[in-house]
Each structure stands twice: as C-alpha cells, then as structure tokens.
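Quick illustration, no need to memorize.
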Amino acid sequence: MTSVFKKFRRDLKFRYGRQLRQLNYWLVARAAMMIISVLRLLPADSALNFADRVARLVGPRVGRHQVAVDNLRKAYPEKSEAEIQAIASDMWGNMARLAAEYIFLDALFDYDPAASEPGRVEVKGADHFVEIASEEKPHIVFTGHLGNFELLPVAAATFGMNITALFRPPNNPYLADYILSTRRSTMGSLLPSMAGASFALAGVLENGGNIG
C-alpha cells in the first residue's frame, strides 16, 4: 500500500509539478509587484528605511537566517552571540535596501555635472566617462561589487555613454520580466547572464560597443 501511495505521489508531482511551480512563481511575483507598488508611493529615503525595518523583522524568521548565523559563528568565533545576531540583522537590512534601490535608481543617482552643489552621489574620474563616450571603439568597464554596483550603467548613461550590462535575472520568470523592464528604463542595454551570454558580449565588442 505504501509503495502504491508513493507511486501516486510521484506521478502526481510529475504531472502537475510544473504547473504548481509556475503558479507559485506567479503568486510570489504578484506579491513582490504589490510591495514594489507600495514602495513607489513613498519618497526614496522613506522607502529604503521601511524596507530595511521590515527585513530586519522578517529575515530572522526564515530558514536562511540560521544558515547565515551558523556561518558567522564559524567565521568569527571570537564574537559574542549578540554581535553575531547584529551582523545577521544588518545583512537583512542591507539586502532589503539593495533590492528597494532598483526602484529608485534614477532618484538616487542625482549627479549633475553642471550643478554647483554636490548631490547624494559623487563621481570621481568623470573625465573617463566623457573620454570613453567620445571614442568610437569598444571598451570593457569593471565595477566593484560594493553597495549597489548597478549604478555603473546609470552613471554611464548620464555622460552619454551607451553600455551593455550583464546581469543575473531572478529564477522567477514573471519577476525577472518585471525587473528587466524596470531596469531598462535607467540602465540602457541589458544582457541576462545565461548560456551564450559570453558570445553576445563578444558580439557587442565586435560592433564597437561597450560592456560592463
């Protein structure tokens, strides 16, 4: 009887597994879009602070929190439990801020080369952007994974530099399509990190384009 039940479950999972997975993706994406819509109603700083606070409350209640805490204990055996928990909490807050920043990239990157007063963002080495934008040859631009590293293409666009940026889309296809459409409004050309991406990047360079 047990073997029959297991076979039934296996057949059911095989037959409806893909549909259930797609339904789960759709529900998660709709929930995420709803949250994003609410955040858009707030000023950028208020939205980021709100996302930070919520993540610090929700994060410790998910399974991955324990994984993070265990790894922190191994990496920093000299730290107290309170310090470990504080670092893990900061991690959740930082991740939430990074995610929310995608909504406000235009507002956050307020650099204006002609402004007399500095804004939120300061650009050093702006002459490099200007030089690259004026050259009719391919370039490869690197940026460190520090903070929101996707500000690079936004900065490039400010100086009239067209750049094709490589990014990793979410596993959720509905959420990936939504985020991609949002990013394209501020980041120029985008190329999903997937099979064949290296050939596509090579094609951009062969045509005299810039990648980063």
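The two ends are 58 Å apart (CA to CA).
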